[in-house]
Amino acid sequence: FVMMHGRIEHGYQLTATDKRYWPTSYFGPTSGAGIAICFHPRRLNPSLRHLRIGVIGLGTGTMASYGEEGDYFKFYEINPDVLHFCDTYFTYRKDTDAQVDVVLGDARISMEREKSRQQPANYDVFAVDAFSSDSIPVHLLTREAFGVYLRHLAPGGVLAVHVTNRYLDLKPVVRGAAAELGLDAEHVPSFEQSLLWSSDWMLASRDRALLEDEPVRAATLPRLLGASTVVWRDDWSDLLGALKR
């Protein structure tokens, strides 16, 4: 089954019984999201292991395939139709051993409300997957938005931002917001074929424990000397400047 919106594929799930649990599309084990979860220091520590994971963008619910018993996932999804299709045609949410919640509405507003109620989520991994189409939600890429994400990260938490886009190079935007907030940001490309899709993710964290792990460093593309950085704010952004050339 494939979820499509216009020309954009938001993910798919294999239907064979022994393969329907497999993470697919942009979320394979070598993707930035897969690496952030599989190599998080808590996941690698048998006495800790359990993770709290937040995700902007439900899609097919593929990220839930990484869930283990004791894990907690919260998806933020603006479109109620996506939730309907996810639960009607895809089984990632139903199959996972983790507890999974879905919050409908704009993710940033929902998270700001949670914070105002003194309910920071303490996510070990927070994934932002909302930028693959040709119409991106700019308000999720500003310095202020990253400040909201950061307030919901647990100590040692990592922010994983999916920046795969046909038209826009969003890596400088992520680097800019991360630098403003004292985060280190690294580019993790994944060159996949067939069941998995090539992807670009940015991993950002104040704690370099995950970023310095050898398999993570091997997957990271070194930043080129002179690579650009730009800071978008709620009152200023530059989509034309982000166009790929």
Defining traits:
245 residues; alpha/beta; 8 helices; 23% strand
Could you explain how this protein is built, in words?
The protein is of the alpha/beta class and 245 residues long. It is 24% helix and 23% strand. It has 8 helices and 9 strands. It has helices at residues 32-38, 41-44, 80-89, 92-95, 107-116, 143-151, 171-180, 214-219; strands spanning 2-5, 8-12, 52-56, 72-77, 99-104, 123-128, 153-162, 184-190, 199-205. The chain has a 7-stranded mixed sheet, sandwiched between helices. A hairpin with a 2-residue loop joins β1 (2-5) and β2 (8-12). α5 (107-116) packs across α6. The N and C termini lie far apart (34 Å). The relative contact order is 0.15.
The gyration radius over C-alpha positions equals: 17 Å
Shape: globular
The topology string of helices and strands comes to EEHHEEHHEHEHEHEEH
Give the tally of β-strands. Answer: 9
What is the helix fraction of residues, given as a range?
10-25%
Low-confidence stretches: none
Percent of residues in beta strands: 15-25%
Mean pLDDT: 92
Write the layout of secondary structure elements.
Blueprint: E1 2-5, E2 8-12, H1 32-38, H2 41-44, E3 52-56, E4 72-77, H3 80-89, H4 92-95, E5 99-104, H5 107-116, E6 123-128, H6 143-151, E7 153-162, H7 171-180, E8 184-190, E9 199-205, H8 214-219
Parallel strand pairs: 3-4, 3-6, 4-5, 6-7
Antiparallel strand pairs: 1-2, 7-9, 8-9
